[in-house]
Amino acid sequence: MDNRPIGFFDSGLGGLTCVTHLMETMPKERIVYFGDTARTPYGSKAESTIKHFSMQIADFLVKKNVKMIAIACNTVSATCLGDLKERFKDIPIVGVIEPAAQAISLTSSIRDRIGIIGTKATISSHAYRNIIASFDDRLKVYEKACPAFVPLIEEDIINSDIMDLTIKYYLDDFILENRIDTIVLGCTHYPLIRSNILRLYPELRIINPSKEMAGKIEDILQEKNMTAQKPENPNIFYASDLSENFINMIDKIFEDVPTKVKFKNLDIDAV
Ligand code: DGL
Q1: pLDDT by residue (tens digit) across 109-124?
Q2: CATH number of the domain that residue 20 is part of
Q3: Phi-psi group of 158: left, alpha or beta (phi > 0 → left; psi -120 to 50 → alpha; rest → beta)
């Protein structure tokens, strides 16, 4: 038993979509979340910048005495999972891509045409394609960077023609030319536009990697006998900029769960 919280982080509010899955499957766990809303988006930044930000956040979470770190960001998982594991050897660290890539390979056939969508950094790393190929190299995988999605989602421009047009801008030709039948939401922000995508392309099978990540977290905690039984503290959500949308999103997602929202600027001091 271990009642300490699990540390989650993302460039912004996208990682909240991973937290919701975990809360459904493991309601006794408590979360310390860090959303780097002041510096989002990460996906179009240099790898060295993404690494620097990620190390700062992981340092902060470790000082908050988390029992595990869940990287609720594909961009960070694609670019610096190895560096984070190397630096924080004593704590389990889970990325979002590997559990999902494994599940995709198990649930897909060689007739499927799988489209991975994500940020520029995730897509140029080919992390999904490579990991899927390591499980089954016969699967057909196509990749498309959609860098405008994250800024629009962070601004809550979701139920809008602007979002629908942006989705069509990126996906119409991609889906048509590659005859895509399965779309993997390779960015934790994208589940927030899942219903837009489904409305525009109703035939698609849509895969949300956050679910697989929650499953992986559960497996590790069970295996290490580290599940929480009687957590005392509320969930805490830190953001480097307390945007109105971040606060609203937390209110909307965690209506019935005790939560605290706090501002934290990692550039001023580390704790
Ligand atoms: N949610 C992050 C991801 O999964 C978004 C990255 C960004 O800030 O561009 O990749």
Answers
A1: 999 999 999 999 999 9
A2: 3.40.50.1860
A3: alpha
